[in-house]
Structures are given as C-alpha cells and as structure tokens.
Amino acid sequence: MIIVGLTGGIGSGKTTVAKQFKHLGIPVYIADDEAKKLMQKSKIIKRKLIQLFGDKAYINNKLNKSLIANIIFNDATYLEKMNAIIHPKVTKHFEKWVLKQEAPYVIKEVAILFENGGDKYCDYIVTVTAPKTLRIERLLARDNTTREKIEAIMNNQWPDENKIKKSDFVIKNTSLKSTHNQVNRIHKQLLKKLSHK
C-alpha cells in the first residue's frame, strides 16, 4: 500500500485538505484523532501519562487537557516525553488500519510528521502551507486559545521552508477553491505515478 503523508503547521488547513482527499475516495487516517482515542482507551498509555504528569492527568477517567497543555507550555521537554509514549502506539494502530484499506493509496495526516521521523515511512509527502497571520486568525476563531499559546505550538513545529524542502507536493491553502483544485491535481499526479509502478 502506498502511504502519502499529509502534514503542515497548526492552522494551515490539513483537516480541510484531508476531507477533500476523502471526498475523492481516498482513505484518510488522522493521527491526532487516533492519538486522542488511544489516550482514553489504552490502559498502558493512561498509566504512563499519570506517571509523567501526575494523578490529576485524568479527572473522572477523562484526560485533563488543560493541565497537560499548561505543563507542556511551560516545559517543552514534556511534549517529547508524551510523544514518546503515544507515537509508537499510534504507529502500530496505523499499520493495522492500512491492512484493511483497499485504495490506490492512503493519506496519513500527521501534524508533526517530520519532527517525529514519520516521513521515513511515507512514499510521498504533501505539505499544507498558509501565511502565519492567516493561520493565527483561523486558530483564534476556531479554538478557545491565545496568540501566545498558538505561537508556542508553532515554535515547537518545523518552519514551512524546512518541510517544503522534504515534500513531494505543496498545497498553498489560502482559498477553498484553489485548495480544492490543488488537491485534485495532486490526486491525478499520484494516480499517474502509481500506474507507472
């Protein structure tokens, strides 16, 4: 199975792009969504997160997102430790998921694809970009957050120029119509490449 990694900084519009690939009949795996589910379901992950963040990491059996976000915001090393707990489990889950798919290729959407070395397991990579000001505007409108918190997350992610250098395709996501056309074009190019393999 051909794996196409889909990545981009926070607020770049990866979800919008993922939906458009899905609309074209391509199976899409959203790593962040699956990670959230595993943090709720996996007893091993729960135990390790409580060891890392303390007894208040879960309240009434639900992940205490605000506590964890605060700890990570004040000390980025906790993010690395948390990722080291969760990413191997997500990778295993993805491998099982891929085996069930029947399509020319699948999309694996990962916010920190390069940062966690996931790019090595992809056949092609699509990076979604958008101007920083637009990304911040989108996030302030979408999430209950602050500019300071958004910038802290952005600083933990690779800059776009680094991602672009290592990508096969780049989508500039500034308008829905243009993004839709770019997705269609990439889809056709991928199918063409696959037909020559």
By DSSP (H or I, 4+ residues per run), the number of helices equals 9
Q: What percent of the residues sit in helical stretches (DSSP H or I)?
A: 55-70%
pLDDT average, as an integer? 93
- Report the uncertain regions: none
Number of strands: 7
Oligomeric state: single chain
- Over all CA atoms, what is the radius of gyration? 17 Å
Please explain how this structure is put together:
The chain has 197 residues and is an alpha/beta fold. Helices cover 56% and strands 15% of the residues. The chain contains nine helices and seven strands; from the N terminus they run βαβααββααββαααβα. The strands form two sheets. A five-stranded parallel beta sheet has the order 2-5-1-6-7, sandwiched between helices. A hairpin with a 2-residue loop joins strand 3 and strand 4. Helix 1 crosses helix 9 and helix 3 packs antiparallel against helix 5. The longest helix is centred in the middle third of the chain and has 23 residues. It is globular and about 55 Å long. 24% of the residues are buried.
